[in-house]
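Dear colleague,

As promised, here are the two records you asked about, laid out in our usual form so they can be pasted straight into your sheet.

NAME FIELD: protein one
SEQUENCE, THEN STRUCTURE:
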Amino acid sequence: MPNGVNKGAVTAFWGKVKVDEVGAESLGRLLVVYPWTQRFFESFGDLSTADAVFGNPKVKAHGKKVLDSFCEGLKQLDDLKGAFASLSELHCDKLHVDPENFKLLGNVLVVVLARRFGSEFTPELQANFQKVVTGVANALAHRYH
Protein backbone atom coordinates (compact mmCIF):
# COMPACT_ATOMS: atom_id res chain seq x y z
CA MET A 1 0.00 0.00 0.00
CA PRO A 2 1.31 3.47 -0.77
CA ASN A 3 2.78 5.08 2.35
CA GLY A 4 0.40 7.08 4.50
CA VAL A 5 -2.82 6.17 2.69
CA ASN A 6 -5.94 6.12 4.83
CA LYS A 7 -7.41 2.98 3.26
CA GLY A 8 -10.75 3.36 5.06
CA ALA A 9 -11.25 6.93 3.88
CA VAL A 10 -10.34 6.05 0.29
CA THR A 11 -12.62 3.03 0.07
CA ALA A 12 -15.52 4.77 1.85
CA PHE A 13 -15.33 7.72 -0.53
CA TRP A 14 -14.93 5.48 -3.57
CA GLY A 15 -18.29 3.90 -2.77
CA LYS A 16 -19.90 7.22 -3.81
CA VAL A 17 -18.21 7.30 -7.21
CA LYS A 18 -20.27 6.52 -10.31
CA VAL A 19 -17.59 4.52 -12.10
CA ASP A 20 -19.16 4.74 -15.55
CA GLU A 21 -19.50 8.54 -15.45
CA VAL A 22 -16.18 9.29 -13.76
CA GLY A 23 -14.37 6.81 -16.00
CA ALA A 24 -15.82 8.34 -19.16
CA GLU A 25 -15.01 11.87 -18.05
CA SER A 26 -11.49 10.95 -16.91
CA LEU A 27 -10.53 9.20 -20.15
CA GLY A 28 -12.25 11.92 -22.17
CA ARG A 29 -10.33 14.66 -20.39
CA LEU A 30 -7.07 12.74 -20.86
CA LEU A 31 -7.69 12.56 -24.61
CA VAL A 32 -8.61 16.26 -24.87
CA VAL A 33 -6.00 17.73 -22.51
CA TYR A 34 -3.18 15.46 -23.72
CA PRO A 35 -4.11 14.88 -27.37
CA TRP A 36 -1.00 12.80 -28.13
CA THR A 37 -2.59 10.03 -26.04
CA GLN A 38 -5.20 9.66 -28.78
CA ARG A 39 -2.75 7.60 -30.85
CA PHE A 40 -3.49 4.61 -28.62
CA PHE A 41 -7.19 4.90 -29.43
CA GLU A 42 -7.23 5.26 -33.21
CA SER A 43 -9.81 2.46 -33.48
CA PHE A 44 -12.28 4.59 -31.48
CA GLY A 45 -13.16 6.75 -34.49
CA ASP A 46 -13.61 10.52 -34.35
CA LEU A 47 -11.66 12.14 -31.52
CA SER A 48 -11.09 15.45 -33.33
CA THR A 49 -12.95 17.72 -30.89
CA ALA A 50 -13.91 17.69 -27.22
CA ASP A 51 -17.54 17.14 -28.22
CA ALA A 52 -16.54 14.18 -30.39
CA VAL A 53 -14.46 12.68 -27.56
CA PHE A 54 -17.12 13.09 -24.88
CA GLY A 55 -19.87 11.84 -27.19
CA ASN A 56 -17.90 8.78 -28.28
CA PRO A 57 -19.41 5.53 -26.92
CA LYS A 58 -16.05 3.74 -27.16
CA VAL A 59 -14.42 6.38 -24.94
CA LYS A 60 -17.24 5.98 -22.42
CA ALA A 61 -16.98 2.18 -22.44
CA HIS A 62 -13.20 2.15 -22.13
CA GLY A 63 -13.28 4.79 -19.39
CA LYS A 64 -15.58 2.52 -17.38
CA LYS A 65 -13.29 -0.45 -18.06
CA VAL A 66 -10.28 1.54 -16.81
CA LEU A 67 -12.04 2.52 -13.60
CA ASP A 68 -13.34 -1.00 -13.08
CA SER A 69 -9.68 -2.08 -13.02
CA PHE A 70 -8.89 0.78 -10.65
CA CYS A 71 -11.68 -0.49 -8.36
CA GLU A 72 -10.08 -3.93 -8.30
CA GLY A 73 -6.79 -2.28 -7.39
CA LEU A 74 -8.44 -0.49 -4.47
CA LYS A 75 -9.33 -3.91 -3.10
CA GLN A 76 -5.64 -4.85 -3.21
CA LEU A 77 -3.90 -1.70 -1.99
CA ASP A 78 -1.36 -3.84 -0.15
CA ASP A 79 -0.21 -5.43 -3.43
CA LEU A 80 -0.70 -2.97 -6.27
CA LYS A 81 2.12 -4.49 -8.34
CA GLY A 82 0.44 -7.88 -8.14
CA ALA A 83 -2.99 -6.40 -8.80
CA PHE A 84 -1.82 -4.69 -11.98
CA ALA A 85 0.82 -7.18 -13.18
CA SER A 86 -1.17 -8.46 -16.16
CA LEU A 87 -2.27 -4.95 -17.20
CA SER A 88 1.33 -3.75 -16.89
CA GLU A 89 2.44 -6.56 -19.18
CA LEU A 90 -0.32 -5.80 -21.71
CA HIS A 91 0.38 -2.06 -21.81
CA CYS A 92 4.16 -2.56 -21.98
CA ASP A 93 4.63 -5.56 -24.26
CA LYS A 94 1.63 -5.36 -26.59
CA LEU A 95 0.29 -1.82 -26.57
CA HIS A 96 3.61 0.01 -25.98
CA VAL A 97 1.96 2.74 -23.93
CA ASP A 98 4.30 5.39 -22.54
CA PRO A 99 4.19 4.80 -18.76
CA GLU A 100 4.02 8.56 -18.21
CA ASN A 101 0.44 8.35 -19.49
CA PHE A 102 -0.55 6.36 -16.38
CA LYS A 103 0.51 9.30 -14.22
CA LEU A 104 -1.39 11.72 -16.44
CA LEU A 105 -4.56 9.64 -16.20
CA GLY A 106 -4.22 9.41 -12.42
CA ASN A 107 -3.89 13.16 -12.15
CA VAL A 108 -6.91 13.66 -14.42
CA LEU A 109 -8.91 11.26 -12.24
CA VAL A 110 -8.10 13.38 -9.17
CA VAL A 111 -9.22 16.51 -11.05
CA VAL A 112 -12.50 14.82 -12.04
CA LEU A 113 -13.16 13.70 -8.47
CA ALA A 114 -12.53 17.24 -7.20
CA ARG A 115 -14.81 18.70 -9.87
CA ARG A 116 -17.64 16.26 -9.21
CA PHE A 117 -17.52 16.20 -5.42
CA GLY A 118 -16.46 19.77 -4.62
CA SER A 119 -15.90 20.45 -0.93
CA GLU A 120 -16.66 16.81 -0.10
CA PHE A 121 -13.35 15.94 -1.80
CA THR A 122 -11.28 17.49 0.97
CA PRO A 123 -7.56 18.27 0.68
CA GLU A 124 -6.92 15.25 2.94
CA LEU A 125 -8.90 12.98 0.61
CA GLN A 126 -7.12 14.47 -2.37
CA ALA A 127 -3.76 13.72 -0.75
CA ASN A 128 -4.83 10.12 -0.16
CA PHE A 129 -6.09 9.67 -3.72
CA GLN A 130 -2.96 11.28 -5.14
CA LYS A 131 -0.89 8.67 -3.31
CA VAL A 132 -3.14 5.88 -4.58
CA VAL A 133 -3.07 7.00 -8.24
CA THR A 134 0.71 7.38 -8.01
CA GLY A 135 0.94 3.85 -6.61
CA VAL A 136 -1.29 2.52 -9.39
CA ALA A 137 0.74 4.35 -12.05
CA ASN A 138 3.96 2.90 -10.63
CA ALA A 139 2.43 -0.58 -10.56
CA LEU A 140 1.30 -0.25 -14.18
CA ALA A 141 4.81 0.93 -15.14
CA HIS A 142 6.46 -1.94 -13.24
CA ARG A 143 6.89 -4.15 -16.33
CA TYR A 144 8.84 -1.35 -18.04
CA HIS A 145 11.66 -1.57 -15.49
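NAME FIELD: protein two
SEQUENCE, THEN STRUCTURE:
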Amino acid sequence: MAKKVKKTHRKDKKHLPHTFFHEWGVLPMRLAIGIVFVMHGIQKMMMGMAEVSGFFVSAGLPSSQVLAVLVTAIEFVGGLCILLGLFTRWAALVLAVDMIIAFVFVHVSNGFFVGNGGFEFVLVLFLVNVGLFFHGAGIWSLERTLTGKEL
Protein backbone atom coordinates (compact mmCIF):
# COMPACT_ATOMS: atom_id res chain seq x y z
CA MET A 1 0.00 0.00 0.00
CA ALA A 2 1.36 3.38 -1.04
CA LYS A 3 1.99 5.95 1.61
CA LYS A 4 0.13 9.24 1.06
CA VAL A 5 2.52 12.18 0.80
CA LYS A 6 1.41 15.36 2.51
CA LYS A 7 1.64 18.42 0.28
CA THR A 8 3.41 21.36 1.82
CA HIS A 9 2.70 23.93 -0.86
CA ARG A 10 -0.52 25.56 -1.96
CA LYS A 11 -2.11 24.07 -5.01
CA ASP A 12 -4.19 27.18 -5.66
CA LYS A 13 -1.72 29.91 -6.56
CA LYS A 14 -4.19 32.66 -7.46
CA HIS A 15 -3.71 34.44 -4.15
CA LEU A 16 0.08 34.45 -4.18
CA PRO A 17 1.54 37.98 -4.53
CA HIS A 18 3.38 37.40 -7.81
CA THR A 19 0.26 35.97 -9.46
CA PHE A 20 -1.97 38.72 -8.08
CA PHE A 21 0.26 41.50 -9.44
CA HIS A 22 0.83 39.66 -12.70
CA GLU A 23 -2.91 39.47 -13.39
CA TRP A 24 -3.60 43.05 -12.30
CA GLY A 25 -0.61 44.37 -14.26
CA VAL A 26 -2.00 43.43 -17.65
CA LEU A 27 -5.34 45.19 -17.05
CA PRO A 28 -4.18 48.85 -17.21
CA MET A 29 -1.95 48.00 -20.18
CA ARG A 30 -4.89 46.38 -21.98
CA LEU A 31 -7.25 49.27 -21.18
CA ALA A 32 -4.76 51.91 -22.33
CA ILE A 33 -3.91 50.23 -25.61
CA GLY A 34 -7.57 49.44 -26.27
CA ILE A 35 -8.59 53.07 -25.78
CA VAL A 36 -5.76 54.28 -28.04
CA PHE A 37 -6.81 52.00 -30.90
CA VAL A 38 -10.54 52.68 -30.51
CA MET A 39 -9.81 56.41 -30.64
CA HIS A 40 -7.60 56.02 -33.72
CA GLY A 41 -10.39 54.07 -35.42
CA ILE A 42 -12.90 56.79 -34.52
CA GLN A 43 -10.49 59.45 -35.77
CA LYS A 44 -10.29 57.73 -39.16
CA MET A 45 -14.10 57.39 -39.29
CA MET A 46 -14.50 61.10 -38.54
CA MET A 47 -11.91 62.04 -41.19
CA GLY A 48 -13.79 60.03 -43.80
CA MET A 49 -12.49 57.22 -45.94
CA ALA A 50 -11.57 59.56 -48.82
CA GLU A 51 -9.13 61.49 -46.62
CA VAL A 52 -7.71 58.34 -45.04
CA SER A 53 -7.32 56.81 -48.50
CA GLY A 54 -5.56 59.97 -49.72
CA PHE A 55 -3.12 59.73 -46.82
CA PHE A 56 -2.40 56.09 -47.69
CA VAL A 57 -1.76 57.05 -51.34
CA SER A 58 0.72 59.73 -50.19
CA ALA A 59 2.45 57.09 -48.06
CA GLY A 60 2.80 54.81 -51.10
CA LEU A 61 0.39 52.13 -49.94
CA PRO A 62 -1.46 50.07 -52.57
CA SER A 63 -5.26 49.63 -52.74
CA SER A 64 -5.73 52.71 -50.62
CA GLN A 65 -9.56 52.74 -50.62
CA VAL A 66 -9.83 49.14 -49.46
CA LEU A 67 -6.96 49.66 -47.02
CA ALA A 68 -8.60 52.76 -45.53
CA VAL A 69 -11.74 50.81 -44.64
CA LEU A 70 -9.75 47.78 -43.48
CA VAL A 71 -7.35 49.72 -41.23
CA THR A 72 -10.20 51.78 -39.75
CA ALA A 73 -12.15 48.62 -38.93
CA ILE A 74 -9.07 46.82 -37.58
CA GLU A 75 -8.13 49.68 -35.28
CA PHE A 76 -11.67 50.27 -34.00
CA VAL A 77 -12.80 46.64 -33.62
CA GLY A 78 -9.36 45.41 -32.53
CA GLY A 79 -9.13 48.17 -29.93
CA LEU A 80 -12.61 47.34 -28.68
CA CYS A 81 -11.72 43.64 -28.40
CA ILE A 82 -8.59 44.44 -26.40
CA LEU A 83 -10.44 46.95 -24.24
CA LEU A 84 -13.11 44.37 -23.37
CA GLY A 85 -10.71 41.45 -23.21
CA LEU A 86 -12.41 39.46 -25.95
CA PHE A 87 -10.34 37.61 -28.58
CA THR A 88 -7.42 39.60 -27.17
CA ARG A 89 -4.60 37.50 -28.59
CA TRP A 90 -6.03 37.62 -32.12
CA ALA A 91 -6.76 41.34 -31.94
CA ALA A 92 -3.26 42.04 -30.61
CA LEU A 93 -1.70 40.01 -33.42
CA VAL A 94 -3.63 41.87 -36.13
CA LEU A 95 -2.90 45.25 -34.52
CA ALA A 96 0.81 44.37 -34.25
CA VAL A 97 0.85 43.72 -38.01
CA ASP A 98 -0.98 47.05 -38.49
CA MET A 99 1.82 48.77 -36.55
CA ILE A 100 4.52 47.05 -38.61
CA ILE A 101 2.91 48.44 -41.77
CA ALA A 102 2.63 51.92 -40.19
CA PHE A 103 6.28 51.68 -39.12
CA VAL A 104 7.58 50.71 -42.56
CA PHE A 105 5.41 52.92 -44.78
CA VAL A 106 4.85 56.02 -42.65
CA HIS A 107 7.08 56.51 -39.62
CA VAL A 108 10.56 55.01 -40.05
CA SER A 109 11.67 57.69 -42.54
CA ASN A 110 10.82 60.40 -39.98
CA GLY A 111 13.27 59.17 -37.36
CA PHE A 112 12.57 58.12 -33.80
CA PHE A 113 10.72 60.96 -32.08
CA VAL A 114 6.94 61.19 -32.37
CA GLY A 115 7.06 65.00 -32.55
CA ASN A 116 8.64 64.68 -36.00
CA GLY A 117 6.23 61.93 -37.09
CA GLY A 118 8.75 59.28 -36.04
CA PHE A 119 8.22 55.70 -34.99
CA GLU A 120 8.50 56.12 -31.19
CA PHE A 121 4.76 55.72 -30.47
CA VAL A 122 4.24 53.06 -33.14
CA LEU A 123 7.05 51.03 -31.57
CA VAL A 124 5.36 51.20 -28.15
CA LEU A 125 2.00 50.18 -29.65
CA PHE A 126 3.66 47.29 -31.48
CA LEU A 127 5.49 46.01 -28.39
CA VAL A 128 2.43 46.24 -26.12
CA ASN A 129 0.46 44.25 -28.69
CA VAL A 130 3.21 41.63 -28.84
CA GLY A 131 3.08 41.42 -25.03
CA LEU A 132 -0.70 41.01 -25.10
CA PHE A 133 -0.41 38.34 -27.77
CA PHE A 134 1.93 36.29 -25.58
CA HIS A 135 0.21 37.02 -22.25
CA GLY A 136 -3.44 37.14 -23.23
CA ALA A 137 -6.19 39.23 -21.68
CA GLY A 138 -5.70 38.07 -18.11
CA ILE A 139 -8.37 37.15 -15.59
CA TRP A 140 -10.14 40.53 -15.78
CA SER A 141 -11.58 40.00 -19.25
CA LEU A 142 -14.82 39.09 -20.97
CA GLU A 143 -13.31 35.97 -22.48
CA ARG A 144 -12.43 34.62 -19.02
CA THR A 145 -15.82 35.68 -17.63
CA LEU A 146 -17.80 34.09 -20.46
CA THR A 147 -15.76 30.95 -21.17
CA GLY A 148 -13.48 30.47 -18.17
CA LYS A 149 -10.44 30.49 -20.48
CA GLU A 150 -8.60 32.72 -22.91
CA LEU A 151 -9.65 32.60 -26.53
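A couple of things worth noting about protein two: The chain has six helices and no strands. The mean pLDDT is 90.

Best,
R.
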